Amino acid sequence: RAIHIGSEADPTTGAVIPPISLSTTYKQDEVGMHKGFEYSRSGNPNRDALERTLVGLEAGAGHAITFSSGSATTATILQSLGPNAHVLSVNDVYGGTFRFLTRVAKETMGIESTFVDLENAADGDVLEAIKENTKVCPFSFNFSQPLLNVQRMSEI
Asked: Which of 110, 126, 127, 108 shows the shortest CA–CA distance to 118?
């Protein structure tokens, strides 16, 4: 099932694996009149295939959303929190994410961020950093960037 969902045979060539789409822009017959794609950051055939595959893998999922970059993912998650939210983040988060949290999200959405060393913090330190308006905890990955510290995700 995971192999075939999102990889329907190409009607022109019969290829069963979608070709990699390297195009960044797509022809429009007129402004706003296109064949499903305008610009690769807003969507492309490979992202559509990946989303269909993810929906097929996740039982009960009706939709999947993929992004063209980690920054786009970060911005979308933070914008979905609403104004004056609090985010608990790993202290060595990716530099672009740190700047987005401390400058853009803070200045434009009032989002407050607390940065904690999740690799070495005691449970009490993590619990103490959580506030009434904390909506994301923790904002991290299993391996942090840029230091690749291993986070205690299962414990947190």
From this structure: 126
Tokens 């789409």 belong to which residue?
21
For residue 127, the surrounding DSSP H or E stretch is helix 123-129
Q: Note down pLDDT in tens along the chain; length 156 residues.
A: 566 666 778 787 888 877 788 878 888 888 888 888 888 878 888 888 888 888 888 877 788 898 888 888 889 989 999 999 999 988 888 888 899 999 999 999 999 999 988 778 787 888 899 899 999 765 555 555 666 566 555 555
d(CA 49, CA 18): 8
What is residue 94's three-state secondary structure? coil
Q: Which residues contact 104 (CB under 8 A, 6 or more apart)?
A: 75
Q: What's the length of the chain?
A: 156
Q: CA 112 to CA 85: how far, in whole Å?
A: 6
Residue with tokens 């192999």: 3
